[in-house]
Amino acid sequence: MKAGVIAVQGDVSEHADAVRRAAASHGVDADVVEIREAGIVPDCDVLLMPGGESTTISRLLREEGIDEEITVHVHEGKPVLATCAGLIVASRDAKDERVDTIDLLDVTVDRNAFGRQADSFEAPLDVTGLDEPFPAVFIRAPVIDEVGGDVEVLAEWNGDPVAVKQGPVVGTSFHPELTDDARIHDLAFFAQEYAGSDVDVGAEAAE
Ligand code: GLN
């Protein structure tokens, strides 16, 4: 499996580790490539859009022409996991003119709604498709405030959606790559098109 991590900015290596762990739990080798230029996304089976700074990430994706390749990837039905700033970039609207969203998920987000860096926190989250709560790390996390009809809410915190899925795209406000628990990566990639839906998600991806 070839997994592309958008690496123009943000927490790249943690996602690479998490996707390798999730793949290994299914006996699959993940060949992880870092994406900083156009031409690589079309070879990838799955994509990860990490956290970081959404203004910077969206600008660089556009400048490099990677944004259109990601859209094609999704139209081909291939999985994407977008976390935190990645979710902001993947949204329909971030209500901030400095963020060029690429509209992979029919949601609007409020950037930094969960507060500044100092307000970061961890919470046990019930997530649809996972048997046990997921230890979710929130860092200056966005709130998802509007959710379109085709979007499934996978998890909520204090009544706000914090994990969503639409077709092959999963988005989280939190950072699933910052724990040793790879079940969100497992859910994003192995519960859907990549490996078929008969896979026992999360069985071994939690450490
Ligand atoms: N709120 C940040 C942004 O707007 C994202 C924070 C994060 O990815 N940890 O880009």
From TrEMBL:
This is Pyridoxal 5'-phosphate synthase subunit PdxT. The lineage of its organism: Archaea, Methanobacteriati, Methanobacteriota, Stenosarchaea group, Halobacteria. The keyword Protease does not apply. Belongs to the glutaminase PdxT/SNO family. Keywords: Glutamine amidotransferase, Hydrolase, Lyase, Pyridoxal phosphate. One of its GO terms (biological process) is pyridoxal phosphate biosynthetic process. It catalyses: L-glutamine + H2O = L-glutamate + NH4(+); aldehydo-D-ribose 5-phosphate + D-glyceraldehyde 3-phosphate + L-glutamine = pyridoxal 5'-phosphate + L-glutamate + phosphate + 3 H2O + H(+). HAMAP family: PdxT. The active site is at 84 (nucleophile), 175 (charge relay system), 177 (charge relay system). PANTHER family: PYRIDOXAL 5'-PHOSPHATE SYNTHASE SUBUNIT SNO, PYRIDOXAL 5'-PHOSPHATE SYNTHASE SUBUNIT SNO1-RELATED. It comes from Halorarum halophilum.
